[in-house]
Amino acid sequence: MQFRFYLSEAVNSLLRNWVMSVAAVVTVLVSMFVLGLGLILFFNFQDAISDLRSKLEIEVFIKNTATQEEIDALGEEIRAMPEVKSVYFVSKEEALETLRESLEGNEDILDALSGNPLPPSYQITLEDPEQIEEVASRFFDNPVVDNTPGKDPPDGVKYGGETSDRVLRVTTIFMIGGSGFVVLLTIASILLISNTIRLSIFARRREVEIMRLVGATNWFIRWPFVMEGVISGVVGATAAALLVLVANHFLIESVVEKMPFLFNATAVPTFTLTIAIIGGGALLGAIGSTLALRRFLKI
């Protein structure tokens, strides 16, 4: 019964103050739409970064003089490392075939070679790319690895030292910056909604004061306004979610084909994003209206 009363009061308030209600809905719509676009970009960049990080690998070249037992022992040592996700052995023959494919149209260059000078190698992918330098350093002094004596850094281990460091640094900055951007948008949305709801409460301040004087509890007064904020938030966020889905479809249709390395059609979890936007709008409406009510409920 009380819920029906609160809902009725909230709806009546929205209809009576429809101009302010529209302002609140539009505020939520704009805020959640911008937030939704930010999340679309965030998901796509995160997917691109994860793909880039997953391609970082260590390549350990083995001396041509190494015996099969030494090669197998090195492979077992690598597989025993807890940081290692996968290991792939590249034989001398496979390395030569890969080089031949990369020289398509110029294969005759290899015909001048006597034998196969390319060394076998292990390609190592890690669970955490952040540990790539630490793991690579374990092979710098390994006698089976084809390192040139006295060369610094060792040339028998390839892991893109500076490149991997740069990639990891940029991705870390992006993740921190993206999270900060989402937090700032959330705070801005709460403040905007709070100010809009406050205008609605200010228009009914005498009604609130009278209810306080006759003994109404804080929550009895607060619930209709909270529900008003929630309704405004849900309506605005639902409209924003629809616009975000349209925008995401446009990105998939128009941008993915041109920049497949940056945007992925499956990177954005649309259902989760829709629920998050609508739920976020309802939460922001509730928080905004609650914050706006605090000054009017002081004794």
Fold and architecture overview:
There is one protein chain. The protein is of the alpha+beta class and 299 residues long. It has two domains: 2-52 and 166-296, no CATH class; 57-159, 2-Layer Sandwich (Alpha-Beta Plaits). Helix content is 66%, strand content 7%. The chain is built from ten helices and four strands, in the order ααβαβααβαβαααα. The chain has a four-stranded antiparallel sheet with strand order 2-3-1-4. The radius of gyration is 31 Å and the shape is elongated. The model has no long low-confidence stretch (mean pLDDT 76).
Number of E-state strands? 4
- Could you tell me how far the N terminus lies from the C terminus, measured between alpha carbons in angstroms? 28 Å
Count of individual helical segments = 10
Instruction: Write down the secondary-structure element order.
Output: HHEHEHHEHEHHHH
What Rg is obtained from the alpha carbons, in whole angstroms? 31 Å
Number of domains: 2
Unreliable stretches: none
Shape estimate: elongated
Largest sheet: 4 strands, antiparallel
Strand line-up in the sheet with most strands: 2-3-1-4
Would you tell me the structural class of the helices and strands? alpha+beta
- As a percent range, the share of strand residues is 5-15%
Portion in helices: 55-70%
Q: Compute the average pLDDT.
A: 76
